[in-house]
Amino acid sequence: MSKQDWIIVGLLFAALIAWSVFQARQAPPRQAGPPGGAPSAAATGAVERAAGLPDETALMPERTNAVRTAVTETARPEADAAARPETPETRVTLSNAQARVTLSSWGGGIVRAQLSRYRAALDEDSGPVELDFDGLPALSLSDVPGLGTNAAFEITQTGTGAVRVVRRTDYGLHFERQVRAADGYVLDVSDTFVNDGHAPLALPAHGVRVGAMEMIRSNARTRGLSYLGIDTLPAVGGEGVRFWGKELPGLFGYKTGPLSCLARQNLAAVPESIRRRAEQPTDWAAVKNKFFVQILAPEREAADVELWAGRNPETPGFEVDRVSATLRFGERVLKPGESFTRTMRYYVGPKKYSRLKHLGNHQGEVMQFGWLKWLCKKLLWLLNAIHGILPNYGMAIIILTVIVRAVFWPVTHKSTESMKKMQAIQPQVQDIRKKYKDKPQKMNQEIMALYKANKVNPMAGCLPILVQIPVFIALFTVLRSAIELRFAEFLWIRDLSEPERLFADMLPIPLNILPLFMTATMIWQQRLTPTAGDPQQQKMMMLMPVVFLFIFYPMASGLVLYWSVSQLLAILQLLIQRRRRPA
User: Fold this and answer.
1) Could you tell me which residues come within 8 angstroms of residue 51 by beta carbon, excluding any fewer than 6 positions away?
2) Which positions ≥6 away from 60 have C-beta within 8 Å?
3) Residue 258 resides in a domain
4) Strand locations in 65-126, DSSP E?
5) How many whole angstroms separate alpha carbon 566 and alpha carbon 404?
6) Cβ atoms within 10 A of the Cβ of 267, count?
7) Which helix H or strand E contains 574, and what residues bound it?
8) What is the crossing angle of helices 557-580 and 513-528, to 10°?
9) What is the mean pLDDT of residues 349-376?
10) Residues 311 and 443 in one domain
């Protein structure tokens, strides 16, 4: 590289450091939590204890044939969560080997879910993850007088793995809920409404809530990624799962897009929380953060969905940090003595595809694998299969990388051989460039004719990268929120789902060794790769390691481990080819 090129590299690296410092100062302050950025009870999906969720007292508007949506600014009402019954609270727990779910007589819903197989902190002695819904219980009813969160229910355990919740209102509506623990993290819920009066009774349009999930707080911030989301599956029209996560900032009126960071936006004018009611029949609704999810799915009955999202106004920037949803059901008239029963399945647990795919009705799509989901599923299966043999996810990623490189070995081999041929005919290419330097069109024609005569493909050098891009995207999608990597250790890395962040308390920029090592391997690979083609293009390729360092530095160490090992294997292949056929 020339002196000018080294100056450019130095400036880019300085810009990287300056940008990282700027990002660290602009990022909203993180909540204090367990070491390693593990979610605490409140951080893994809690509702606001004092503020509660929006008070949903308005009845559902008249249904139309089209999908009707409305966005409503909501304050942070304290009345719903604070107006507790005078009757003492009774709590009953359902538990199995995977989860421990606590129901309360106040509101008749779930106030806490403890996931026994997932620890709350990086420390191995920490307790299990707890999803806290105490501010507003999950499965609680809204807009049915006498059956809200400020009502006291009778709650009893009716046997192993079953709870009965009962209340009779003053106007003759008898409500009974049966909650049974099914397999793993699934609860079977049955709600029965009975008209005990002597006149017809209108059961108003009402909702069943899904507990709120909060952003998992960590010491690291993965730039440009948001893991909070609300997903719904339309019941009609054959549409696929709709992912609302990216639309939420726009619902606040906050501008998003590639240039939005350049425009100053008045956060004081942005509401603290919003609701959006989509009157479209929905089979199920899911609320999720990076590693955990709730899914509420009525059986044999579709519902409209009301989305809710909140932001923290105390942070300097805009960030959606709480999401929830309510399934809305229409009005129904019950004759004297008539009853109506609604059954639902409720999942509260890890975002683990091997479990979610068995729930049926596309509920596994909450993994949000995207357009390469077929490849994501195969790579995730292979990763877990390797882990079953070698019980360390760092080693599993390395073996997976070896398998991927082995699959693409013939392509990269052919590419390298083609580039060697191009290198051999470079003197002829240079002669053509000199001869036709004033006739660019003729020059290109002659060069292409030379390539054709020597059976050389000028794009061969790009082919290995192009064919690996789908695999890289699929692995990035899988590893970015794979709960399998949560707190998975490898060598000096304590959590493969996060950047390394060494000496974070001592350095202005935490040290991530793997991205630096990866950059060194890229430079080494470039020195070994036969060079040919446009000199300007070669100079641009020399800057690629710096660009990749900038991109990979804040990424999860599991993904950087994959790319680093992939680079090492590419270098090994080049060395083998050099030994067999010296350049």
Assistant:
1) 76, 77, 78, 81, 135
2) 205, 277, 279, 304, 328, 330, 331
3) yes
4) 68-73, 91-95, 99-104, 110-119
5) 9
6) 14
7) helix 557-580
8) 20
9) 91
10) no
Total tally of structural domains belonging to the chain: 2
* pLDDT, tens digit (0-9, with 9 covering 90-100), for 547-581: 888 888 888 889 899 989 988 988 887 787 677 65
Same domain (yes/no): 355, 303: yes
Q: Is 122 helix (H, G, I), strand (E, B) or coil?
A: coil
Domain-located, residue 537? yes
Same domain, 301 and 154: yes
Residues 492 and 571 in one domain: yes
Report how far residue 424's alpha carbon sits from residue 132's, in angstroms, rounded to the nearest whole number.
Answer: 67
CATH number of the CATH domain containing 226: 2.70.98.90
User: Looking at residues 45-63, what average pLDDT do you find?
Assistant: 32
What's the whole-model pTM score? 0.78
Closest CA to 362 of 190, 245, 239, 280: 239
What percentage of residues in the chain have a pLDDT greater than 70?
Answer: 75
Considering 366, 396, 415, which residue would you say is the last residue of a domain? 366
Rounded to whole angstroms, the Cα distance separating 345 from 519 reads 48
Q: What is the pLDDT of residues 479-525, one digit of tens each?
A: 877 899 889 999 999 989 888 888 878 888 889 999 999 989 888 88
Position 13 in a domain? no
> Does residue 297 sit in the same domain as residue 429?
no
Non-local (6+) Cβ contacts of 275 within 8 A are 54, 56, 70, 71, 72, 74, 306, 307, 308
| H/E stretch holding 560 | helix 557-580
Identify the domain containing residue 460 by its residue range. 388-580
Check if the beta carbon of residue 83 is closer than 8 Å to that of residue 106.
no
d(CA 399, CA 395): 6
